[in-house]
């Protein structure tokens, strides 16, 4: 009787994990069709991710027009996320800052978008 319960629990756990892996969103290819690379002056936006930068409409005056005019939302999202290496321990902090930039610049990332930072172990 006990072996049946253990087997049932293990099968249930396997099914749950299988369901979670199948339900993952498709990773969008980079570069996106129509755009081959990020613009060189994207650094104006990446600098806003720094620890001491204040993110406001005034400080993003150079960043927002760049993102809105030249790039579609999906490429803008990838460009900001992939141009700065961040320590693993600070990932939540940087995700909040990226989301704030998107909000102020009125950029709507594609559905299911996950910011994939370049991580360092420092």
TrEMBL record:
User: What range does the record give for the signal peptide?
Assistant: 1-23
The protein's matches in Gene3D superfamilies, at most eight in alphabetical order, are given as: Plant lipid-transfer and hydrophobic proteins
Q: Any idea where the Hydrophobic seed protein domain is?
A: 38-115
- Pfam short name (any one): Hydrophob_seed
Q: Which UniProt keywords apply?
A: Signal
Q: Which PANTHER family match?
A: PTHR31731
Q: Which family does it belong to?
A: Belongs to the plant LTP family. PEARLI1 subfamily.
Q: What is this protein called?
A: Hydrophobic seed protein domain-containing protein
Organism from which the protein derives: Capsella rubella
């Amino acid at each position: 009787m006990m072996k049946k319960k253990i087997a049932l629990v293990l099968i249930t756990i396997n099914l749950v994990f299988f369901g979670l892996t199948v339900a993952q969103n498709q990773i969008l290819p980079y570069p996106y069709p129509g755009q081959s690379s990020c613009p060189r002056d994207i650094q104006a936006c990446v600098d806003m991710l720094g620890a001491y930068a204040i993110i406001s409409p005034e400080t993003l005056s150079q960043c927002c027009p760049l993102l809105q005019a030249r790039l579609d939302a999906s490429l803008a999202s990838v460009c900001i996320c992939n141009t700065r290496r961040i320590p693993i321990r600070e990932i939540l902090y940087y995700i909040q800052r990226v989301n704030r930039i998107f909000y102020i610049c009125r950029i709507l990332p594609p559905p299911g978008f996950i910011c994939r930072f370049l991580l360092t172990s420092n």
